[in-house]
Amino acid sequence: MANFRWQALILIALVLITFMITKTKIISFNATKVIQSRENLIQTKLLSNTPSFERTPSQINSNVNFKKMPLRRWDVLDSEVTSEAVLIQSLENDFPFFKYNTSKTWPIASLTKLITAIVVLEDIGKNKKISISENVVATEGKAGDLKIGEVYRAEDLLKIMLLTSSNDAAAAFEEYLGGKDAAARILNNKITKLGMNETIVHDTSGLSDLNESTVNDLLILAKYIIKNKPEILNWTRLPNLIIEPLNDPKSRTIYNINSFVADSNFLGGKTGTSQETRENFLAVFSLDKSRVIVILLGSQDRTKETKKLLDWVKEAYFF
């Protein structure tokens, strides 16, 4: 009888020990699952906050600039401007130093010729022969000094158009494209493809004050040129150029009308002027070893204002 009681006690003890071991394993297993779940949640959150090249494939082929962003000196007041709209922005990291009315629509005058230049290079071809007609020479303005009957390679005529802002050269391209209405349709189709949704043009030269855009759209245009047609801006850095028609051995020299052409920090750009528009400007400058774009619309004095704003950037920011 005593042996039976001892056996019963031993059996109960074994059952209790087995139960405790099993319970401990269950608790340990559940705790491990909780920890793993928490770790998975943390990793998921970290991944969701990490830039993914799969989500932004354009970054794969871009030179990502990890340069430290400039710091604003708030003891330096904002610069006063006369322009209707202004943008100064780094092209390396898209940092905006100064923005004012960047979505305001304004006549762009001869900045239109930058759009024309893209169309010529992409839709006409730089080796096409372009003739200068009587109607072309009758276009308002004498810049470029083109003569009736002359024939130019499209690339040479482009350089004349960009350096001297020749309306005659722009009109020659317009005539080649089928006239003002046909050329305007082609330019506006290009504008749409570029995503310049607030821009419209009615001619290739910018003589029409109905040619309008915004600083934001002109930034899109400038970035497209820099990436796809950098020769356009490179040509605008030439102080002068010897030109010669294909059908006349007599050459002559044309001169760049941009007041910044002698500035070593000037990396290219275009002016635009009319009585209604006042002075427009789109240009790229070297500033602290970075490329900076300056866009002014409706300035009272683009040269003075550009210099003032670039000096202000150097004073207002730590690089």
Description:
The protein has 319 residues and is α+β, with helices and mostly antiparallel strands. It contains nine helices and 13 strands. A five-stranded antiparallel beta sheet has the order 3-2-12-11-10, sandwiched between helices. A hairpin with a 2-residue loop joins β11 and β12 (290-299). α2 (112-124) packs across α6. It starts with a helix and ends with a strand. Residues 23-66 have low confidence and may be disordered.
Topology, pairings included?
Elements: H1 2-48, E1 71-72, E2 85-90, E3 96-100, E4 106-107, H2 112-124, E5 129-131, H3 134-137, E6 151-153, H4 154-164, H5 167-176, H6 180-194, E7 212-213, H7 215-228, H8 231-235, E8 240-243, E9 252-255, E10 266-274, E11 278-287, E12 290-299, H9 302-316, E13 317-318
Helix pairs in contact: 2-4, 2-6, 4-5, 5-6
Major pleated sheet: 5 strands, antiparallel
Binned, the helix content reads 40-55%
Uncertain residue segments: 23-66
The number of distinct β-strands equals 13
Strand order of the largest sheet: 3-2-12-11-10
Question: CATH superfamily assignment of the largest domain?
Answer: DD-peptidase/beta-lactamase superfamily
N-C termini distance: 95 Å
Write down the overall geometry: globular
Question: What labels describe this entry?
Answer:
42% helix; five-stranded antiparallel beta sheet; alpha+beta; Beta-lactamase; 319 residues; single chain
